[in-house]
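Quick one, tokens below. Sequence please?
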């Protein structure tokens, strides 16, 4: 595949951000964070691994100027940032199943991840972030959330095929 990704997880909402980056430099990392902070505001704390981008003077200055407390995980102990490590594994698993262009695949993966309720909260990351349930493709197939049996609704096999198609995507 040959791509480098910066994967960021919001600890409150468990929202996942994935960016393809040109390099693992502090400058490239900071540019992604500037874009992210412009959308969601400045976090109080950022936890990262000990990669060169995160330990550079440039990155430390960026964190300091923005009033962000930066914590580094223990070297050789990825479990110390288990939320991020789990997100990386989830993303890697999804990328293995590529059947479309990379950017399209990432967008589809992120949408599905962000609208799926998390077992720890019972809500999706976007519901936690935005305070409301987001409309999805499933809402098009089933506008009213009450499901009736086939006998009550008179649904035909083409409707069932639509549900199957949507669920298989």
């Amino acid at each position: 595949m040959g791509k480098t990704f910066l994967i960021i997880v919001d600890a409150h909402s468990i929202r996942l951000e994935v960016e393809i980056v040109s390099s693992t430099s502090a400058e490239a990392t900071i540019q992604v964070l500037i874009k992210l902070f412009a959308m969601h505001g400045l976090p109080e704390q950022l936890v990262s691994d000990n990669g060169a981008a995160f330990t550079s003077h440039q990155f430390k200055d960026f964190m300091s100027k923005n009033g962000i407390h930066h914590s580094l995980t223990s070297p050789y102990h990825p479990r110390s940032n288990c939320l991020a490590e789990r997100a990386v594994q989830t993303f890697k698993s999804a990328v293995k199943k590529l059947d479309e262009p990379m950017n399209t695949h990432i967008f589809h993966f992120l949408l599905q991840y962000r609208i799926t309720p998390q077992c720890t909260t019972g809500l999706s990351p976007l519901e936690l972030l935005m305070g409301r349930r987001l409309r999805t493709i499933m809402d098009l197939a089933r506008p009213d959330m009450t499901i009736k049996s086939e006998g009550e609704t008179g649904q035909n096999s083409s409707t069932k095929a639509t549900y199957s198609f949507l669920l298989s995507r």
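DSSP finds nine helices and four strands in the chain. The domain at 4-130 is CATH 3.30.420.10 (Nucleotidyltransferase; domain 5).
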